Structures are given as structure tokens and as C-alpha cells.
Amino acid sequence: MCGKYSKDGKQKCGMNLCCSATGWCGTTNLYCVNGDPKGLTLPCQAGFGSCKVKSGRTCGVGSGSTGGRTIGYYQGSNTRDRLCNHIYPNDIVTTGYTHLYYAFASINPTSFAVTNADPGDIALYTQFTALQKKGIKTWIAVGGFDFSDPERATHRTWSQLCSTPSNRAAFIKSLLDFMPKYGFQGVDLDWEYPVSPDRGGVPEDTQNLVLLIKEMRAAFGSKYGISLTLAPDYWYLRYFDAKSMESSVDFFGFMAYDLHGPWDINQKTIQPVVRGQADIREIGNDTLPLWFDELDASKINFGVALYGRGYTVANPSCNSVGCAFSGPSNPGICTNSAGAMGLAEIQDLIKTKGLTPNYLPDLMMKEITWDDQWIGYDDAETIKQKKAWADNQCFGGTMAWSVDFNSGIGSGLKPTNTTDGTCVGGKTTVINGKTTVVGGTTSTRFDVSTTVIGGKTTVVGGITTSAPSTGPITTVVGGTTTVIGGGGPVTTVINGTTTIIGGTATSSGTPANTGAPTSTNGHCTGPDCHDGKCTADTIDTYRIQESSVQALVALVKTVLMAFARVLIASRSGAWGQIVQMVYARV
């Protein structure tokens, strides 16, 4: 409530919205008129916000106002959390971006010092900031939605951090240590959200955040950049005093996505029906508070989503916007998160299932449906349209969440293309066949072209070292088999079937380079399959990458140990022990 009907009778509308005669904040004539001379409407409460409907200035669809600044968030956690298609900093498709934000760093809830969210982040920081060599500015983003979850130790950290001058100073000092240590050029604060009790907030957060931002600018000068994310809906946005922070930030980021999702099923004010998470009609309404607060549009980045939100519909015969849903959509094959799917996964799904995307002009989005599944998303076409819409609204840039959803095939366990089962691999030595392991364990690490499907391991190219628990060592190098040592349950057949009974088979290797595509278990894989049917980004089978250095070390150690055994067997025990010592140091 606002105005005379608020708790203390003094509450103003956040973001300078109109306070209606009955004490509600809004953006339309229902809230903003100063009174109808005929008495048909009630007057707006002056002094508690605006009493005039406002809209942003218009620059024209072709203005290109957003073109000067394009920001992409990067989730370092994708390298740990996903089942496949890990995107490391070197894998990021950087074309078109002016800034990249590493998401997220954390904050120590006791000392209020910025710290890495996970030990694995540290190694990624320097890889990430090295992208500056491409002319891209690299910043660190702090916080994130999960950071303020009720079950987290950091639930109230933002609020406590901002609450006193000494806590704010500790945070700022830690940033001034953290950023140069890893080479970051600026910081993005992602506090979701101030004041809101369910997010650990208190009423004082609004003013305390303003103090933090101003003190950061005073400490940073022009050396480091500052940006702040703004909530996409007024329920949370009302607690940001953005106008008071405008002169101290380089820019704001408006999250024009996640307006809806499977969580709507728990909302009492709306029905659990399928809605687009980035419906341009809702976005248009949600941006109005920015203009009521008279923010400079050139300092705001318009958010776009490189992922989709999905639902499992209650009735498969009703599978479109407005239909009832019973829960989130099934997890993506790599992201493994119910109700969400990366753009690369969506594009693969379209190909593997033969789906036809449906354009939703009113939403400025696309949808795909099959069985009881519905996914709404943006792709290059609709993102281009939304950028044109943002150009017309004079936004100064765009920001994308997140580039790791749309950087193709990265490193680590990752997808390969598969469409019709006619080819496997590209530019590799091919061992046609399959390895069946009975009564043992198979651990496989390959640089390129290894598929593990339904318990069968098919090795395509590379250096393969197999060592059963009893028996000889078998090394396959680019299609050549060398057996060193005697006795043991290993039968090796090139262009055939290898069966290992008992023991443990461990493989590590790098592919040879002979370019021989073929088929494996009815699937087509490999980026160089050019039969007119294979595609480069289809997800169906997996390849597992490892360093070629590790592969070489594994091979050298295998040969050394075999040589030592030969020397010992020939009664040259002393030499054999020397070789074993060398083995231990490799």
C-alpha cells in the first residue's frame, strides 16, 4: 500500500509509480489521473509518486541503439554441473560481444570478502580474463539468485553487508584485491533481491544499496566498472532506488526473462497455465517503471535469454500457450535441469525429433511441442526482433544469459552429431567394432571420438591402452595393435569385436588423423561427416576429451613398465629396477 493507506501513512511508490486514490501503485490512468472534473474517477495521491502516465522516449526500430554494448554472462559452474557439453572459457563463442561477465563469485557471510564460489573457479578465472586479448572486457558478477536462497548460509549476506559502513568497506576492499589478482576489469552486482523478506532482505536495504554503490564508485574511480542487475517485475523492482544510483554505475542490466516458469504452479494469483518466459507484451509493461523513474535508457542493457523454459502439460491434446501444466518439462540431455533447456539442446532436439518450431508473433518467441512437452524459447531470429524492439525503446545495450548455453560443442564430456547412423568420427583412425566388457569395469578417456551407448564401448581412433587386472597390456595406436607381456584374457581384433572377460579396462588417448567416418551402434557422429545428413551440433552420443599430454604419459608409462618386465624376466633385474624408477617419475 502507498500514501495515506500505507502502514505509516508515508509510503511512496517504488520507482516513482503513481499512487492511486485507494493506495495502490500502478502505471495506468487508473492510478495516475489527477481527478476527473465530472467525478468519474478518483484522484491520484500527489506526493507519493508520479501522477502522470509516462512512457520511454522512442528512437525508432532501426536506431541501432543497443548495438554499442553487448554483454554475455558465462556460468563457470557449467563445467562441473552438466552431464555433457562443458563450455570452458576458451570455448566461448565471443563474436559480437563487447563484455563478458563471469557468473558468479560468492561473498563470505562473516568477513564480507568476495571469494570464489567453488574451488574449480580459480583455474577458470585466468582463462576467462585472457579473453581480453580478443578485445573483450571481462568482469566478475557477484551473487546470483541461488546466493540468497533461504537454505543458504548467504541468505542474508547482501543485507548484512550493506548495513554498516565497516561491512561495506570490507566488501569494497576485497573487490580491490580480487579484481586485479585475476585480471577482472569491473564488477556486476546481482542481488536478488533487496528488501524482500523471502530473499533475506530488510526495509533498510533500499537506501543501504545506494550507499554501497556510491562508496564503490568513490573507491574505484574510473579504474573499474560497476553494473547492477534490475529485477524484471515490479514486485521486486520497486525496492531499487535506481535513479539515485544511476550516476555511479556504468550501466544497469534489466532481466527481461524468467517472467514465468514451472514455479507458477505455486502462485495463488495466477493459474498454472503455459506462459512464455520472455513474452514481449509483458516485457513492455515491466519496463514502464524504468521510465517512471526517468532512468537514462542508454545506461540500461536489455536482457535476452539463450535458453528456454518448459512444461509438462496436463493434457497432451492441449499443448500450447494457455494450456494447463502439471509440472516442469523433462530435463535436457546435458543441462539436466527440469523445466529449462539450453539453446544448443533445443536446436538439437528439433533435429533429432524432426520437430517444427512454431513462431508466436504476439509473444515474439518460438515454441516446440511433442507428446506432453512444451518448450518456449528465443533463437537468433526472435532475439534479433527483440533487439529491434529494444532499439525503439532506446536501450543502450543488451545482455544475454548465458553464453555457455549457445557456444556450440565445448570441452569435456560433450555431444556429437547423430542423425541417421551412416557415419562416425571425422579425421580419425577408425576401429570398426565394439568392445564388450563382462565382469569388469571400463573407464575410458579419449580426446576425440569415443561413444558409450547402453553399456557398449565403441572406440573410434586414438591411442587406447587396456590393462585387465590379470594379463597382458594391449596398446592400440592409430589402428595398430601391439601386445606386450604374456598370459591373460585379452583378445584384440581390429575391424571386428574385442571381448574382455574379467578385469578392468582403462583407456586413455588421442586420436590418429586418417579421416575415416563409419557407423557405430546405429548412430552418426563426428563434425566431419559430410554425407548431406549429418549435422555438427546434434546431441545423441558422447565424446570425452582429455589432454593429449596425459595420453602420451600413459603410453610412455605402459612401454616402460613392459620393458622393465622384459628385463627382469631376462634376469637383468638391476636394469629393470632402474626402468621402474623412471616409470614412477613419469
Topology:
Elements: E1 18-19, E2 25-26, H1 29-32, E3 70-75, H2 78-81, E4 99-107, E5 114-116, H3 121-129, E6 137-143, H4 157-162, H5 165-182, E7 186-190, H6 205-220, E8 225-230, H7 234-237, H8 242-245, E9 251-254, H9 280-286, H10 288-292, E10 300-305, E11 307-313, E12 325-328, E13 340-342, H11 343-352, E14 358-360, E15 365-370, E16 373-377, H12 380-392, E17 397-401, E18 414-416, E19 433-438, E20 441-446, E21 450-453, E22 456-459, E23 463-466, E24 473-477, E25 480-484, E26 490-491, E27 496-501, E28 504-509, E29 541-543, H13 548-569, H14 573-585
Parallel strand pairs: 3-4, 3-17, 4-6, 6-7, 7-8, 8-9, 9-10, 10-17, 19-27, 20-28
Antiparallel strand pairs: 1-2, 4-5, 11-12, 11-13, 11-16, 14-15, 15-16, 18-29, 21-22, 23-24, 24-25, 26-27
Domain Chitin-binding type-1: 1-53
Domain GH18: 68-416
Family: Belongs to the glycosyl hydrolase 18 family. Chitinase class V subfamily.
Overview in brief:
The protein is 23% helix and 23% strand.
What do these coordinates show?
It comes from Pyrenophora teres f. teres (strain 0-1) (Barley net blotch fungus). This protein has 586 residues and is an alpha/beta fold. It has four domains: 1-53, no CATH class; 65-405, Glycosidases (TIM Barrel, Alpha-Beta Barrel); 414-546, no CATH class; 557-586. The protein contains 14 helices and 29 strands. A hairpin with a 6-residue loop joins β23 and β24 (473-477). α5 packs across α6 and α13 (548-569) runs antiparallel to α14.
